[in-house]
Write a structure and sequence with these properties.
Elements (H helix, E strand, L loop, with lengths): L6 H6 L1 H4 L2 H9 L6 E3 L2 H29 L17 H28 L6 H14 L6 H4 L8 E3 L7 H7 L2 H5 L4 E2 L19 E2 L1 H28 L4 H22 L4 H9 L1
Antiparallel strand pairs: 1-2, 3-4
Helix pairs in contact: 4-5, 10-11, 11-12
Length: 271
C-alpha cells in the first residue's frame, strides 16, 4: 500500500496530517502571525475578586485595631510590632501574601493592556490560514480565538509608521517581487506537500530600507526646494505664504513617515 498522500486524503483529514504540528511553526514564523488573547474581561474580573479579598482582610484588621484600642479593652500596646498579638500579626502577614499576588497580577496585566491592538490585516492573515487555506486543520472551537479581534494582542508588537502601514495594505505592494520573500516555515518532516505554500512573506528589512530612502529623499527636497523657490518669488507676503506651506508640508511628512508623537513632530518641524 502506497504511503504517498494525495490531495483528496489531505483535504479529507487536515486535522490528522496538519494540525498544530503545522500551525504552531507557521504562527512562530513571523511576528505578524503571533497573536494571542489578552483576556481583558477575565483579567478584570480576577483583579476585582482579588481586590475584594484584600478589602475583607483590611476590614478584619480595622476591626482588630478598633477592638484593641477600645476603652474597655485590656491595656494592649498598639504601638509595637514586635510585641503585637499573634492574631493581628498573622493577619498582617496574610494580607502581605495577598498584596504580593495582587500587585504582581495587576502589573502583568497592565503590561498586556499597554500593547497596541493587532492590525486588521494581520488578523486576516491568520483567519485565512485557519478558515480558508487550511480549513479543518485546527478544530473550529479552538480556532475561534482569532475572531475575538478586540481582545487580540501581538506577542511582539510591530512599530511601523503610517507610510509603512499604508504600503503594506496595498495589494500592489504585496504583489511586487521587490518586497516579498517566499519560504518554507514548518520545519517538520511530517509536513505534507508544504502546508505554507499559500504564505507570502514581506521582507521587512527591504521595506525598512525603502521607507528610509523615501524619508531621506523627501527630507532633502524639503530642505533644498524652498531655497530655490524663494529665489524666484517676489513679495514678502508670497514668500511668507510659501514658507508656511512648506512648514505644514514638512509637519505632515514627519508625522506620516516616522513613528514620532505629535509633540516630537512639532519639535522636528521647529528645528
Amino acid at each position: 500500500m502506497s504511503t504517498e498522500l494525495d490531495e483528496l486524503e489531505l483535504n479529507r483529514k487536515p486535522w490528522k496530517y496538519g494540525g498544530y504540528k503545522v500551525f504552531a511553526p507557521w504562527v512562530a514564523s513571523s511576528n505578524e502571525f503571533f497573536h494571542i488573547r489578552a483576556f481583558r474581561t477575565l483579567n478584570a474580573r480576577i483583579i476585582l475578586a482579588m481586590q475584594d479579598q484584600i478589602c475583607q482582610l483590611e476590614e478584619q484588621l480595622d476591626s482588630l485595631d478598633e477592638r484593641y484600642s477600645h476603652t474597655g479593652a485590656a491595656d494592649i500596646n498598639n504601638g509595637s510590632l514586635r510585641g503585637d498579638l499573634q492574631d493581628r500579626t498573622d493577619l498582617i502577614w496574610e494580607i502581605q501574601k495577598k498584596l504580593k499576588q495582587y500587585n504582581k497580577f495587576v502589573l502583568n496585566h497592565a503590561s498586556l493592556r499597554s500593547r497596541p491592538q493587532v492590525p486588521q490585516r494581520e488578523v486576516l492573515n491568520t483567519e485565512n490560514w485557519l478558515f480558508w487555506n487550511h480549513k479543518g486543520a485546527i478544530m473550529p472551537q479552538e480556532a475561534r480565538y482569532i475572531k475575538q479581534r478586540e481582545d487580540l494582542i501581538s506577542v511582539v508588537p510591530q512599530h511601523k509608521s503610517l507610510l509603512q502601514r499604508g504600503l503594506e495594505n496595498s495589494a500592489k505592494f504585496h504583489s511586487s517581487r521587490l518586497f516579498r520573500i517566499r519560504r518554507r516555515t514548518t520545519g517538520v518532516k511530517q509536513d505534507p506537500k508544504g502546508w505554507d505554500d499559500y504564505t507570502v512573506y514581506t521582507d521587512n528589512e527591504r521595506v525598512g530600507q525603502f521607507v528610509s530612502a523615501i524619508v531621506i529623499f523627501a527630507g532633502l527636497v524639503m530642505l533644498v526646494a524652498p531655497l530655490w523657490v524663494l529665489e524666484f518669488v517676489d513679495g514678502s507676503v508670497r514668500r511668507l505664504g510659501l514658507i508656511t506651506g512648506f512648514i505644514v508640508l514638512f509637519l505632515v511628512l514627519v508625522a506620516t513617515v516616522s513613528e514620532a508623537r505629535p509633540f516630537e513632530s512639532l519639535a522636528a518641524t521647529a528645528a
